[in-house]
Design brief:
Helices cover 41% and strands 19% of the residues. It has a 6-stranded mixed sheet, sandwiched between helices. Helix 1 runs parallel beside helix 5 and helix 2 packs across helix 3. The structure holds 5-O-phosphono-beta-D-ribofuranose (RP5).
Amino acid sequence: MRLSCELEPATAAGLLFSVTLGEGRKSVTPPMPNNSQGTTSSGSIPLVGIIMGSTSDWETMENTVKTLEQLGVPYETRVVSAHRTPDVLFEYASSAEQRGIEVIIAGAGGAAHLPGMAAAKSVLPVLGVPVESKALKGLDSLLSIAQMPGGIPVGTLAIGKAGAINAALLAAAILGGKYPNVRESLRKFRESQSTKVLATPDPAKAARQFAEVIAPAAKPSRKKRA
Ligand code: RP5
């Protein structure tokens, strides 16, 4: 059986990821308005492949995208389900390296096999983001992703938003060894984060200032009736 994948030309909805199985052809529709290559410098080849098990993971994985955008790291996004579209997963993971992807970030929830299976089909570093599940609050996702048997590692991040942000930062740290501009972006990100924390050393004082000075000044003044 022939199995290949290709990117369709851009459409209004973004790029479609197509899978060819033998003579048949199946297009997987985008999960979100811009399910596509996202870059800050247009035309850049994606270095990070962000995959997720379902469109319902987007709320979490959007944080990975936002963080990579802040750092100026080109990425692409796809819904690739280990359980519902296993052939797409195999094709995506096994072709990622030759397409120029250098790090895969995989977010999934529940019995989350996506990161582990992606890691099994590629020698690229795979970072797993456990998406918070309804039933077990993401503990199931965390254990499914972290407890890989020896031999196939998945770098596992925290559950939910924090993990999604950190996956992007860790991907940037990995890429920083090869791309000095990415390392510099990461350094600036850290500096700006420290500056923000140092700007509010005493939250009690800041809250008092807000209540006494800023909030009253922001209130619309009431006009007196004649
Ligand atoms: C996993 O199942 C996905 O990663 C998602 O977190 C979870 C639930 O998927 P939906 O039923 O919301 O599509 O494969």
